[in-house]
Design a protein that fits this description.
The complex is a heterodimer of chains A (305) and B (282). Chain A has 14 helices and no strands. With 305 residues, chain A is mostly helical. Chain A starts with a helix and ends with a helix. Helices cover 73% and strands 0% of the residues of chain B. Classes of the chains: A mainly alpha (305), B mainly alpha (282).
């Protein structure tokens, strides 16, 4: 009935959108699209709204920008933001550089192919929480294997405090993360190297370029888009790291390894301060978008040339 | 002379390769070794590399402590259910994006891709509050829905690439034979793209198997706990709170890892294909 009363023009437009030819595509795409939006966009809107309240598990009221006024003077947050950026930058760059090295090594037609393929996939298939467990065993301080190996190699008997010293714990979490992701990066680079044009490299060889020159002046520039893509994906994953650090150090000692995600979790789920936790989460979202934006721009530019 | 230099180079490469492989495998391998150690050996200083008196006794102990079969069932249900759900929804969306020209197409595609950048932690709080109000906390369906929503963009992108490689003439032929879009998708396109569908399911299954944060916050009883969240609660050795329980920790870790190892061996090629898809087109 409503349709019959609509103006002819609006009606024909409605018809063109929902005519059987197009309707089927909406039926196909909407379940996925709506489900995804319900679980991402709506929670973001709610996070924004909750961040203007002092809501706890008992309820709360609108307090305007109070949470943000506290936020800019929250030294734990600022420390956590700094650590998150340091961790993200160090891990993403280390993974990319080492991953590219491993990829080049594995492209040298060595034997042990099946074994190396299997071992490459192993850290990737290990759950972040499981990586924390495996490294908790390695980093064990009272007679752990890593300290024993260092001693065996002649680095004296000063036991390294892998997880109980703030600076060392930061280093330890980065090592764990690099271990977990470096083979993924290498696999991506192997695919990218495999797709490079052989002719260009052969032409360079004919022109007398040695292996190092061929890599530096020919392969590397051609790999630039892949490098930026890897940096983009890794940085965006690292900046929101929660699981493996929560499993390894719980953000400690003190707040030394507390990333933004851990800090938001602490406020929201452990102290049940929904309002303030949401404000911290928005900082995390903003940083993620910024990092994504920067690398996406680099990637875009590298493809243009 | 050149020959000798070549051989030296080759030897150097192998040394590097072995260093890399040992470095990658060692944390997992040492965890496996540790799981076969006795409580006495794991507390020895200096530690042993190999278990001196290998034992399997940690496995039944941890299986009892964890209610292993229930936890395994929950994990399979969650990883399998969400993998299947996300692959089917993703296939439908990918097909619409690949074949359809409809209003809002690029906007929806863009939003789906952009939503992959949203940190899980940001969405978790409101999801928790909503689940509290909707009585979805601690339910299988609630968790499966979160994971389905989480994995579906990847399935969509992956299958979009696969579907685009299938000639449209097949769709036209099916249409002439009177098949609707749904029939075409499920009877013709998906069977042809089966390798891609399988890769998508595989990646999402492993992601679901390994996820921790959502179950940790949205599950409150053993009835919905999964293997990774159980890693968080490792019992101390009975009547002995002084000594370390690294052997039990390691055994718990093996429970999470071991079921994936055969899968990893059988599907290496598909996994690499799934991981590197899109990297080549860059």
């Amino acid at each position: 009935m409503a349709q019959a009363r609509a103006t002819p023009r609006a009606q024909s437009r409605l018809q063109s959108i929902f005519s059987s030819r197009y309707a089927v595509f909406y039926v196909l795409v909407l379940p996925a699209f709506l489900l995804r939006m319900i679980y991402t966009v709506i929670p973001i809107i709610q996070t924004v709204l909750i961040s203007f309240t002092d809501r706890t598990i008992l309820g709360g009221r609108y307090i305007g920008l109070r949470n943000y006024e506290i936020l800019v003077r929250d030294s734990t947050l600022i420390g956590s933001l700094g650590w998150t950026l340091l961790y993200t930058g160090t891990a993403a760059v280390a993974e990319t550089v080492i991953g590219l090295g491993i990829a080049i090594l594995l492209m040298q037609n060595l034997r042990l192919r099946w074994l190396s393929n299997f071992i490459m996939l192993l850290p990737w298939v290990v759950a972040p929480m499981l990586a924390a467990v495996a490294f908790q065993i390695l980093y064990f301080e009272d007679g752990g294997i890593l300290n024993a190996i260092l001693q065996e190699l002649g680095f004296g008997n000063a036991a390294v405090r892998w997880l109980s010293d703030a600076e060392t714990a930061r280093f330890s979490t980065i090592v764990m993360t690099v271990w977990k992701n470096v083979s993924w990066v290498a696999l991506i680079f192997m695919a990218a190297i495999g797709s490079l044009s052989k002719e260009v490299l052969e032409a360079a060889a004919v022109d007398g370029a040695n292996a190092l020159q061929r890599f530096w002046y020919v392969s590397l520039p051609l790999l630039k888009p892949a490098i930026y893509l890897v940096l983009l994906l890794r940085a965006m994953a690292e900046v929101q790291t929660f699981e493996q650090i929560y499993g390894l150090t719980r953000g400690g000692p003190g707040s030394a390894t507390k990333t933004l995600a851990l800090y938001a979790f602490e406020r929201f789920f452990q102290q049940l301060r929904y309002g303030y936790g949401s404000a911290v989460n928005l900082v995390l979202l903003l940083v993620t978008i910024l990092i994504g934006g920067i690398f996406a721009w680099l990637l875009y530019r590298s493809r243009e040339i | 002379m050149i020959h000798r230099k070549r051989r030296l180079q080759k030897a150097l490469l192998y040394v590097l390769l072995i260093i890399v492989l040992v470095g990658l495998v060692f944390p997992v391998l040492f965890m496996a070794f540790t799981s076969f150690k006795t409580a006495g050996e794991v507390n020895r200083i200096p530690p042993t590399l190999w278990p001196r008196y290998p034992t399997l006794e940690n496995y039944p102990f941890m299986a009892r402590a964890w209610d292993f079969w229930l936890t395994l069932r929950n994990t399979l249900l969650l990883a399998g259910g969400s993998g299947l759900g996300a692959t089917i929804l993703g296939a439908m969306a990918a097909y619409a994006f690949s074949r359809g020209t409809f209003r809002g197409r690029s906007m929806m595609y863009g939003l789906l891709v952009a939503s992959m950048a949203v940190p899980a932690m940001v969405t978790l709080g409101p999801i928790f509050i909503a689940y509290l109000q909707l009585n979805l906390l601690d339910t299988h369906i609630g968790l499966i829905l979160v994971f389905t929503a989480g994995g579906m963009p990847l399935a969509t992108l992956l299958l979009f690439a696969y579907f685009n490689a299938i000639p449209r003439e097949l769709d036209d032929a099916a249409a002439i034979d009177g098949a609707g879009r749904f029939t075409t998708l499920f009877r013709i396109i998906i069977p042809i793209a089966m390798p891609g569908v399988f890769v998508s399911f595989l990646l999402l299954f492993i992601a679901g198997w390994n996820e921790f944060l959502f179950v940790f916050t949205l599950s409150t009883s053993p009835d919905t706990q999964v293997l990774t969240t159980k890693l968080y609660t490792i019992p101390p050795r009975e009547a002995d709170y002084q000594s370390s329980n690294l052997d039990l920790v390691a055994t718990a870790g093996m429970f999470v890892l071991l079921p994936l190892v055969p899968l990893l061996m059988l599907t290496q090629r598909q996994l690499v294909e799934g991981i590197t898809f899109g990297a080549v087109q860059g």
